[in-house]
Every structure is written in C-alpha cells, then in structure tokens.
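Posting this for the archive.
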Amino acid sequence: MSGCMMLVLASCSTTRYVPDHRTLLNSVSVKTLGDYPQVNTATLRNYVRQQPNARWFSIFRLPLHTYSLSGADTTKWYNRTLRSIGEPPVLFDTLKAELSRSDLRQQLRNEGFLNAEVVYETRQRGKKTDITYWLQPGQPYFIHNLRYQIDDPQVAEVLGDDSPRRLLHEGMRFDVSRLDAERKRITALLADSGYYRFHKEFITYQADTVGMSNLVNLTLHLSLFKQSNRPDTLHTRYSIRHITYASSDASTSSSQEGDTESRIRLRRSVLEECTHIAEGQPYSATGLRNTYNHFGRLQAVRYTNIQLTPVNPLLLSSQSEGVLDCDIQIQTNKPSTLSFQPEGTNTAGDLGAAASLTYQNRNLFRGSEVLSVELRGAYEAIRGLEGYSNQDFTEYSLEARLQFPRFVAPLFLFPRSSFRSFNATSEVSLLYDLQDRPEFHRRVLSAAWRYRWEQPQRHNHFLLDLLDINYVFMPWISDTFKREYLESETSRNAILRYNYEDLFITKLGFGYSYANGPVALKTNIETSGNLLQLGSNMFGAEKDANGHYRLFNIAFAQYVKADFDITRSIAIDQSNQVVLHLGLGIAYPYGNSSVLPFEKRYFAGGANSVRGWSVRSLGPGKFKERDGRINFINQTGDMKLDLNAEYRTHLFWKLDGAAFIDAGNVWTLRQYDIQPGGKFSFKDFPKQLAVGYGLGVRFNMGYFILRFDLGMKAINPAYEEDEDEHYPILHPRFSRDYAFHFAVGLPF
C-alpha cells in the first residue's frame, strides 16, 4: 500500500502548477570562489530570500508532490485538503535573487570583507531553475588604530573603569557584529549605572581605511544627550526615590492600595526580596528585569507591571541628578484551587485507569509558599499470571509538597544577598504509596528536602537533594512468588531477593543542567548510606547474617551513582536537522550493599533508548532472559550507554518525521550468577553493543508532541547459535525484530 502511494506521488509532476513563462526554484547553493575557511556558507545561506520547496530528509519533495495531487477545482473538499497539507511550488523570482545577492554582499562586508562581491548563476532545465550564488570575499580588513571618544566626562569615568571588558581591540578583524555588540555592552553598562534614558543610538562609529592597505582606523563616538529644539546636554544619571506597591485581585480585578501588606496578601519582606532596585540607589535595567523575573516566579502573582516616573526637576533641591519614582503593580491569583484528573494506563499491555485529586494553596504563609496535596488511585488488570489468588493491581498514594520561592534553612547561614540574583526554590515533600499486586504488597514512605536554583542569563540550572529518605516495606509476599523466585534453590536470584526486602535509602545528590541553542547538557551525582555506615562503625553496631548493618532492624542501601547526558543538534536547513545524543550512567554498590536498589538500576530499550527493543528487554551485556515474568528485574544493570543519531524533518501541516540509528546496552559491574554474560569488560564491550534503526512520526501540537517510533533490531548481542538472530539487519524478520513505541515529547 505504501509502495503504491509513493508511486502515485512520484508520478505526479512537481511543475503541474507552475505557470507558463515561470520556473520552479529547484535548488539553491552558496559557494565561495577560492579558499576562504573563515567564511561560513551555511550561515550565509540564511540571507537568501528564496528557498526551494521543503524536502523530506533533504531528498523527497513530498509536500510539493502532495500539493500537485490536488485538482484545480477548489470547491471540492479533498482538493482543499491536499493543498492545505501540501506546499505550493516556489517560483523562481529574479528580483528576490538580486536582493539576495545584495544581502549576501552586505553581510560579507559586515564581516570585514569590505571589497566583497557576489554574483549568481542560474541553470534552467525545462520548467526548473537551479541557482548558485558565488561569493568573492577578497581580503578581510583589520582594525589598525582604535579610539574611544566620549563627550560626557561623567560617562567617560564610568566607561574608563570598565575598559578591561571591551570587545574591541587593535588587530582584530573589522566585524560589524562585534561593533554592534560593543554598543550593546556599553548601553547595558550605562543602563545599570543609572542612565535611564540612554540608548545605543548615542553611540556611533567612524571608520577610515589606511592608504591602500587592508587596515582601518576606528573611532567609537559617544555623543551628548540630544533633544529636539534644545542644545545638547550631559546625560542625566537617575536614582530611585520612592518604591510603592499596589495590587488587584484576579477574581475581582479591583485595585487595592493603601495598607499594601494586608491588601496584597504578601509579606512586606517578600515584596522587598523580589525587588532588585533600591531606594536611594542608581537605576539599574538589570535590577528592573530581575524584579519582573522574581515577581513572575511567585505563584501567588498573576501579572506584574512596573512604572517608572521621572520626578519634575523643579521639585528637587539639586538638579544635577535625576530622580525616579517606582510603582510596582501586581495582580494576584486565586489563593487555592482543587482539581481532578483522570487518566488511562497501559503497562506492557496491561490496561488500567487512574485518577488524582489535587488541592493547591499558592500563598500559605503570605510569602507565595505553595502547598499541594495530591490523592491518587490506580487500577490495572494483569494478564498472564498463574498460581495467584487475584489478577489485579491497585495503588493508592498521598503526597504533600511545600515549595518556598526562595532559599530556606539551613542555607540561611549564608548571607541572603549572595543568593538574591538566583531564581531559587526550596521544597519539602512527604509521600506514602500503597501498592497491592498479586505477587506482593509494597509500601513506600518518602521524605525529601531539596533546593533548585537557576541563572537564566547563563542558562545554568542546579538541583541539590539535601536529604531524600525512602523506606520500602514489604508487608506481604505470596507463597507462590516466594517458592518460585525467592526460596527455590534452583532459581535463587540475589538481585530479586534484595529488591523484595525491607530497605532504607538515604540519598544525597547534586544535579546540573545547561541548555542554550543547539547544546543541552545534564549531569547528576548521588550517594546513599555513607553517614549511616559511618555511624554504625563509630558506635560498634553488629552486622546481620548477611554481613549488613541495620537501622531499626532494617538494612540500608549504600552506593554511588553518576549520570552524564549531552545532546547536540545540527541544522541543515529550515526543515531538516541532525540530532546527536550521548547518555552515560554508572552506579556502584559497596559497603552495606552488594546489589543496587531496583529504582536505581539502569535498563535499556524503550522509547528513549535503543528503540529496536521494547522497554527493559535488552541486556545486561549478552544476557538472554527466559522468564518473561521477571524480565523487569533481571534485565537491569549498574552501567548504561546510549548513543543516538536522529535525522528530523518537517513533513507537512503539524507532522514531523524522523529516521534514527541507536546503539547501547546496560551492564553489571559485579558478577551475578543469574545474569551470565552481563558483567562489563573492555574486551567484550564492542561486541555487546546493541544497534537498532527505524522511522518515526511526530504530531507537533506546539505545546506538546505525540511521538510514534517503529524500531528494528540491527545487531543483537543476546543470541545463541543462530547468526540470523545475531545480525537481524542482514536477516530481518519483522515479527521477531520490531518494537513500536508511543511517547509524549522528543526522545532527547
């Protein structure tokens, strides 16, 4: 069926709707005449005003083919549909080609190639035109002498103290983007130094070439303050006189003034903490921006408007300095909400339903503290279990979470001013989770105390888990499960047994993430049990029969774990990009543990890993599982590697496509008899990498993405003697080698 569809699309002429005496823009190229490694033709292509029709994976012009399938009669719905999801032909336009040539030449000159020229060459084949823009940059020009001419002596004094941070220097290439960046830097510096009315148009450049050389004498000129029909004057430096607060309620939209603290329902100290400009201090544009950001983070606040009003100089005792009055107006949210959310679940083919009821108070202590209490219930019908009294899974949980929009104890020991520039959140949470499965009953009690903070300007995000305690309690395990997996001498499973015992996990962790443009980085390190181990040694605690220290007669986990994840996207054109991803994780149990807790173990396969395998069906190493009922335990490891390359393309309408290649696996760091072939070794590591490939479709709705991926096995490290199973890419069998994934969001 798909082959027939492709044949129909291929047979449909892409020039069907190209008028007579016009041609289809078939391809665009930007090339240099000569070797100019400093000229980035891929970036310069963005200055071309006409781009050809989008191509799937840079090969197939399927959107244009789809449009060409439509008939001329647009009163028929199917013709309108084909045209709406397709793309009309891009007709070659000589005027746009000439404008593109001019823009490319100007950009080259902006980059320092002052004698640059650009020509374009067209080649017509039938009703299609190929165009090539040939760049002739010539020699770049460099700054010979650099001079700063500041007409305002007070401004000159401010800039003199900042000279080490200048972006311009003698000997650098004459680059207009660097010149503009210096204007913006100076403007930002002065705007943070009280110059409320200063803007970058007061800064101009004068450039003169030196004789017949490729050198330029450059002068940066900062002029006096100009007003219409008035003589030029010195720039006025403003300070803040009064700061006032006013509010309106989102439910009534009525203005509230007067007793600010009571009417706004936020403590005065909270208002002042969010305000990053101060009375008696110079005006600061960065402080104003941070004030907006910090008020915007308060969930009790819906909207913020800050008005700065210059005070009439006639009302001031001294007119040498300007004065501003600041009025901060906020609109508050409703203090509390109650929400109900149903959902459907599908765990490995077992269908179920869940629902949650959440109460939220956004201003608990009049400091925009957010208290949320969530009650959740879930039910799932489990299939394929034999020997158990029922086939149902039920879960009930109650979670309370309290968030503070600032650092709270024990970080209060540090000066508050040192953290004011951060967007910080402190959080305390408590969770009780009750799970009843046919095989066992599990109870989990968790308590956590963590901090989050970020530096938006630097794109840095931090997470500190100061304390994260989990108590896992197993009140009941069925006799069938005990007999078959926990007590049987023929199938004794150390990993399985460890994860069905009562356990304490006391975690301390730190995470860092960075996301800016095409690069995203996430790292995390955590450890557990060290303080309990130290205390046990100090107080001479006795070990149990398994050699473990116990707290309240319950064993505690001890391990260290580190994760590293980096993604790099490479844009090919407006519709196509390649995304590369590396994910590495390693965890090691030691001291009081010989096995990692199940929640901390790694697994491979699934929608965000090696997509030729379903979730938790790959590894560790070359291990091959034979008991499907406990795959979720046995196919886990202490170390994980994911290598992914994905080609993403826009299809049409809201549909995107992808072609991907994945490689990776999980391994154990210790030798476990129940997982033969699962231990990591450098010698066997290359042979134990699983490789998969596939295609995907994404529904991009803007605020969320629905993803469908079909993965196929290419190289399977878990095989016996069958070479067909080892290299499925050479001997594909769809029923054996495919995995279908549905997910929300991109894989990385």
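Confidence is low (pLDDT under 50) at residues 1-11, 252-262. Residues 121 and 132 are 5 Å apart (CA to CA).
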